Amino acid sequence: ILHKMSEFHCRFRLHHGISHDMVHHFNNESIKCIFLDGNHAYAAVKQDIHDWMPKLQRGGYFYFDDYGAMFMGTVKAIDELIDRNSLTLQTANMLGNVYIQKPRDGTELDTVYVYPDNKGYESAY
User: pTM surpassing 0.85?
Assistant: First the structure.
């Protein structure tokens, strides 16, 4: 991933922590590139997309790890993002790393995370 991103002149800083806790350390539209490698469950990937997309600059790149048959939760969440927003999924390498580019024109992306509430109904925020 670092090699692929070098063509975009990106400098990286690795942050260790729980994704949902770390997101609060960054301002909206302050990051040029995000590489997400977290919990691969569908709900967790949806939550990460919802949390981190506002932090990504216009025209920025959002990389995902483990997009493949062994991690169908990851695949489903990313495919929903792509389908809802007419984005193009790009392959970074043959190791299951893929990415999308956030629109440069400031178009808001639909990252609504729908989750079951305690009563079994669907809720959204």
Answer: no
pLDDT tens-digit readout, 49-63: 999 999 999 999 999
Letter string b/e over residues 7-33, b meaning 16 or more CB atoms within 10 A of that residue's CB: eeebeeeeeeeebeeebeebeeeebbb
Give the tens place of pLDDT for each residue, 80-99: 999 999 999 999 887 788 99
DSSP 29-40: T-EEEEEE----
First to last CA, the chain: 32
Candidates 75, 107, 99; CA nearest to 8 is 99
Nearest 5°: CA angle at 105, between 104 and 109?
85
Amino acid letter for position 35: F
Burial of 125 (0-12, 13-18, 19+ CB in 10 A): exposed
Q: Where are the alpha helices (DSSP H) in the chain?
A: 2-6, 19-22, 42-52, 72-85
Beta strands at 56-64 and 31-36: parallel, antiparallel or unpaired:
parallel
